[in-house]
Amino acid sequence: MYTDSVPSSSDFIFQDHSQPGSVKFGLYVKTHEIKQLDSSLRQILLMPKLERQAWINEHEEVVNDLLDSFVSDSGMALEGLQLDSEALQLSIEFVTSLRDVMNTLRGIINESSTLSS
C-alpha cells in the first residue's frame, strides 16, 4: 500500500552543520528527501476518502512528527542564506520543496477532516 513508501520522521532530522560545504550538502540532501516524501504523500491524496481518513488516523503521530521536523529543519534554509549564491539557491529550492509538501499534507488533512463534518 501507499504507506510503505512514506519515510518515518527520523529520516528528516538535520545534523549540526558547522561548515559551509556541509550546509550546502545538507540542503541538497534534505531537498531531495522532501521531494520524495511529497511524491509519496501525493499517492495518499489519490486514495478514496475513507481510506485516506483511515491513513490519517493510523499515522497521526508520524504526520505530527513530520510537521515538527519541518519547523526545526527550516533553520537549515536560514543557514544557507548566510552563505554564497549556490547555498542561497539551495535554500530557496529547499523552502519551495517544504512548502509543496506542507500543501500536500494540508490537502490530505483537509480532505480527510471534511469527512467528519
Briefly summarize what is shown.
By secondary structure, this protein is mainly α. Helices cover 77% and strands 0% of the residues.
The class by helix and strand makeup works out as mainly alpha
Estimate the mean pLDDT confidence. 78
Number of domains: 1
- Radius of gyration (CA) equals 15 Å
Shape: elongated
**Individual helix count:** 4
Q: State the end-to-end CA separation.
A: 27 Å
SS strand fraction: under 5%
Number of strands: 0
Let me know the largest β-sheet. none
Amount of helix: over 70%
Q: H/E series, N to C? A: HHHH
Task: Point out poorly predicted stretches.
Answer: 7-17
Description:
- The structure is a single chain.
- The chain has 117 residues and is mainly alpha-helical.
- The protein has one domain (20-116).
- The chain is built from four helices and no strands.
- The protein has helices at 20-45, 49-58, 60-81, 85-116.
- The radius of gyration is 15 Å and the shape is elongated.
- The two termini are 27 Å apart.
- The relative contact order is 0.19.
- Residues 7-17 have low confidence and may be disordered.
Key structural traits:
117 residues, mainly alpha, 4 helices, 0% strand
Task: Furnish the topology, listing elements before pairings.
Blueprint: H1 20-45, H2 49-58, H3 60-81, H4 85-116
